[in-house]
Amino acid sequence: MTGPRTPQDIDTSKPHSARMYDYYLGGKDHFDVDKQAAERVAEAYPGIFVCARENRAFMHRATRVLARDHGIRQWLDIGTGIPTEPNLHQVAQAIAPEARVVYADNDPLVLKYAEALMRSAPEGRTTYIHADANDPDTLLAAPELTEVLDLTRPVALSLNALLHFVTDAQDPYGLVERLVSELPSGSALAISHCTPDFDPETWQKVTDIYTAAGTPVRFRSQAEVARFFDGLDLLDPGIAIGHRWRPDAGAEPDESVTDATVSLWVGVGVKP
Length: 272
Known about the structure:
Blueprint: H1 17-24, H2 32-44, H3 48-69, E1 74-78, H4 88-95, E2 100-105, H5 108-112, H6 114-117, E3 125-130, H7 136-141, H8 143-148, E4 156-160, H9 172-181, E5 188-194, H10 200-212, H11 222-226, E6 233-234, E7 240-241, H12 259-262, E8 264-270
Parallel strand pairs: 1-2, 1-4, 2-3, 4-5
Antiparallel strand pairs: 5-8, 6-8, 7-8
Helix pairs in contact: 1-2, 2-10, 3-4
């Protein structure tokens, strides 16, 4: 992990997407500026709370499927966000205690809570890297990465609710391709990505709110999300709305969870 940061490194003058997400999930690790921006989003798109919850649920299911059915024992989770239990390593280690997880995020507040991300099962290992997803070379060169992950063995790359914060000018497809290129055959890519497909007008309002708050966003269509998986073998059911990707057996239907409310394309692909 990089050197310690002081509280003044946390900028409370403008909202931050990770802290807004914490608010959507009902957390307490955000500031008034984040709450105010999140409430503006919720006013335009009341489904944001369902979207955030279903995004988290997809991460849990995808992690379990990769650990249980595909033998994955290593994860690189970029855009980790503020810890919300169960964290990815807790889900993976519940199935495979020896699982290893590297978390990466660029929010100093996530760094503050990094200890919670590193409470690994004794058989496994976790670490946290303070790094920017837009600088994959620096992230991949971090010594903490190869201290925990063996890049000659399959790794699951987890990019949950991250890529809609990477604009077209930042080359999101090149970014994903660069990261996947470092991973061996049998590795996996898991993505969740907000979409305007079901309600373009509402999502334009959300775009405007984030952009005005200093966080440019680019919400993408199903076809645009599918492009991130070029060259990979998509697991069934392919690119699906979050709650429709391998729902837990016996789960009670929730009438508040509709495709339009969730507005989140997700998928998991395996590298041949």
